[in-house]
Design brief:
Among the domains are: 61 residues, Sandwich (Immunoglobulin-like); 102 residues, Cadherins (Immunoglobulin-like), CATH 2.60.40; 104 residues, Cadherins (Immunoglobulin-like); 98 residues, Immunoglobulin-like; 113 residues, Sandwich (Immunoglobulin-like). It is built from 5 helices and 37 strands. Strands 30, 32, 35, 36 and 37 form a 5-stranded mixed β-sheet that branches. A 4-stranded mixed β-sheet has the order 6-12-11-8, with no helix packed on it. Strands 13-19-18-15 form a 4-stranded mixed β-sheet, with no helix packed on it. GO terms for molecular function: beta-catenin binding; cadherin binding; calcium ion binding.
């Protein structure tokens, strides 16, 4: 209540109120000065209101005292419950944790005034989750309450935590939240094999690196705590089998390292250990974190193909061996207990020419054709061994037959020599050095001997010198060689090898006489060069031939151009310019196009044309054979146009054959929209003024001359 000292209680004073919430939340009795609240107040929305009050004279409405300011404070009541703003919560704690291990802290807030009473003083309690967990009443920290909680028994717990104000007293407001606690894994469980022993049967034909079996030790832990390794610690299969781990499934994979043989060993026993890779020292007291099991592998007998006594047989035979010569023997046997007889054959895909045969029963390999070391020095063949009782079982043996060389090839020139001798050569001058080759391959290498044949030994032109290093030198015996007398010499050379018995051959060396320069380099070797006229060299002949060819090309071009310039069969630009449509898509520049046409012809339908007379038929006969044309009666222009075309076709020697059809169309004289062409604009009756074209520059001079009205107009 407000009261002024000036107020005598006679009603001469009235009170007014202004400021926050005046008239809307707070009102004042102007007679008594009592202030009332018009609606429920909420401290959490606004805790203070600042108001101003003044006493006025009711008659003059003037203040009787200065304006006074006062503050209304909202007193709090417990009308807000605690709230967990971050809930619900999730947390984790390792299994087997000791009592009192902190899990997570929860926090609740109360909107009431913490400075007034206990409305905002919160305490925490656990409604669900006992006896496994507890909560600190004042801090809200959740802790483990039982020891040795096992994840493998139960891995998740749901807690309900309550926060209550008024320090937990009766009448206080409360709020709750949920906390999901997950027990994380620790390595507290050793691996254990479900069985003490395992047995597996495998066929002896199982390839190397094949999987024999998969075994797995059980481990209740998960993740890295369940990772383990396997190893073979004992047994008679240490070198035959190996074990590895599948990291995805933690299984032990037993695979073969060596081929199995039922006839050699029928079973194997393995002692296998599985152990954890990551051990927690806190739980070593629970026992060793490893386990052992026994794996027995039984090898099953298979019907195996025959086996050769050697994987590769090496044999030699001379290339001079006769057909049927024994080269060697292969042997194979059936490894099975039945020991079935074996029959042999040669895989003809490896002996396409059938050089060899093999005895089906004994395995003896013989020659079937003559051999040639120079064609093939080594033959690699495959021998097949098949069981008599089961031909599907085939073993393969490999035989390398080396052909021994004999001296059966005579030596010959190493290359085709192009030997020349200069006309000015001097006696004793070297003109060629020759060598020889031999397809044979003697063990001590080649040694060749060179000489001239008996009939050439006494020639007066050339001699031969053996260099004793498998080469020989050809020298001149005289000078004064002349192409006019003899342009080519043939020198027979006798070559002998060092084989036993030795072989020889006669090779002819062709020597050409040439005109040489000062350095002894041959310039020309043809005797015919002396017979040619002095004025006609080879270059002159080539030039004459080029000129003739050029003239022929020019004649062909002229004939082709004349054929292309013949009048077309149906359309003729010179005879009917009205059928041409000229289109311009650029600004100006049209003068180049208009030069090809006579614009005056577009205004004259009666164009004088030269007629040509056909020499093969007479016009009268052609008129009788032509069909009659139906023309438009009232259109004289069109009728005249058709008859002109008809006459021209009848007398034109270049027109199509008589049974061709020529079609003409006429769109008529008039149009509702009138003509869209600009061709009429050149007439004197046109209303359009084109004088401005003269101002557009030289590119539009032709258009200005055609359509302008000046005194120098082209058609004025």
């Amino acid at each position: 209540q407000l009261h002024s000292d000036v107020d005598k209680g006679d009603g001469s004073i009235k009170y007014i109120l202004s400021g926050e919430g005046a008239s809307s939340i707070f009102i004042i009795d102007e007679n008594t000065g009592d202030i009332h609240a018009t609606k429920r107040l909420d401290r959490e929305e606004q805790a203070y209101y600042t108001l101003r009050a003044q006493a006025l004279d009711r008659l003059t409405n003037k203040p009787v005292e200065p304006e006074s300011e006062f503050v209304i404070k909202i007193q709090d009541i417990n009308d807000n419950e605690p709230k967990f703003l971050d809930g619900p919560y999730t947390a984790g704690v390792p299994e087997m944790s000791p009592v009192g291990t902190s899990v997570v802290q929860v926090t609740a807030t109360d909107a009431d005034d913490p400075t007034y009473g206990n409305s905002a003083r919160v305490v925490y309690s656990i409604l669900q989750g006992q006896p496994y967990f507890s909560v600190e009443p004042k801090t809200g920290v959740i802790k483990t309450a039982l020891p040795n909680m096992d994840r493998e028994a139960k891995d998740q717990y749901l807690l309900v935590i309550q926060a209550k104000d008024m320090v937990g007293q009766n009448g206080g407001l409360s709020g709750t939240t949920s906390v999901t606690v997950t027990l994380t894994d620790v390595n507290d469980n050793p691996p254990r094999f479900p069985r003490r022993s395992y047995q597996y049967n495998v066929p002896e034909s199982l390839p190397v690196a094949s999987v024999v079996a998969r075994i797995k030790a059980a481990d209740a832990d998960v993740g890295p705590n369940a990772e383990m390794e396997y190893k073979i610690v004992d047994g008679d299969g240490l070198g035959v089998f190996k074990i590895s781990v599948d990291r995805d499934t933690q299984e032990g994979i037993i695979t073969i390292q060596k081929e199995l043989d039922f006839e050699a060993k029928t079973s194997y026993t393995l002692r296998i250990e599985a152990a954890n890779m990551h051990i927690d020292p806190r739980f070593l007291s629970l026992g060793p974190f490893s386990d052992m099991t026994t794996v027995k592998i039984i090898v099953e007998d298979d019907d195996e193909p025959p086996v050769f006594t050697s994987r590769l047989y090496s044999m030699v035979v001379s290339e001079a061996a006769k057909i049927g010569t024994i080269i060697g023997t292969v042997a194979a046997h059936d490894p099975d207990a039945s020991n079935s007889p074996v029959r042999y054959s040669i895989d003809r895909n490896t002996d396409l020419e059938r050089y060899f045969n093999i005895d089906a029963n004994s395995g003896v390999i013989t020659t079937a054709k003559s051999l040639d070391r120079e064609t093939n020095a080594v033959h690699n063949i495959t021998v097949l061994a098949m069981e008599s009782q089961n031909p599907a079982q085939i073993g393969r043996g490999y035989v390398a037959i080396t052909i021994l060389d004999i001296n059966d090839n005579a030596p010959e020139f190493a290359m085709e020599y192009e030997t020349t001798v200069c006309e000015n050569a001097q006696p004793g001058q070297v003109i060629q050095k020759i060598s020889a080759i031999d397809k044979d391959d003697p063990p001590n290498g080649h040694q060749f001997y060179f000489s001239l044949t008996a009939e050439a030994a006494n020639n007066h032109n050339f001699t031969l010198q053996d260099n004793k290093d498998n080469t020989a030198t050809v020298l001149t015996r005289r000078n004064g060689f002349r192409r006019q007398e003899q342009s080519v010499f043939y020198l027979p050379i006798f070559i002998v090898d060092s084989g036993s018995p030795s072989l020889s051959s006669t090779n002819t060396l062709t020597i050409r006489v040439c005109d040489c320069d000062a350095d002894g380099i041959a310039q020309t070797c043809n005797a015919e060069a002396y017979i040619l006229p002095a004025g006609l060299s080879t270059g002159a002949l080539i030039a004459i031939l080029a000129c003739v060819l050029t003239l022929l090309v020019l004649v062909l071009l002229i004939v082709t151009m004349r054929r292309r310039k013949k009048e077309p069969l149906i359309f003729d630009e010179e005879r009917d310019i009205r059928e041409n449509i000229v289109r311009y898509d650029d600004e100006g520049g049209g003068e180049e196009d208009t030069e090809a046409f006579d614009m005056a012809a577009l205004r004259n339908l009666n164009i004088i044309r030269d007629t040509k007379t056909r020499r093969d038929v007479t016009p009268e006969i052609q008129f009788l054979s032509r069909p009659t044309f139906k023309s438009i009666p009232d259109n004289v222009i069109f009728r005249e146009f058709i008859w002109e075309r008809l006459k021209e076709a009848d007398v034109d020697p270049c027109a199509p054959p008589y049974d061709s059809l020529q079609t003409y169309a006429f769109e008529g004289n008039g149009s509702v929209a009138e003509s869209l062409s600009s061709l009429d604009s050149i007439s004197s009756n046109s209303d359009q003024n084109y004088d401005y074209l003269s101002d557009w520059g030289p590119r539009f001079k032709r258009l200005a001359d055609m359509y302008g009205t000046g005194p120098d107009c082209l058609y004025s």
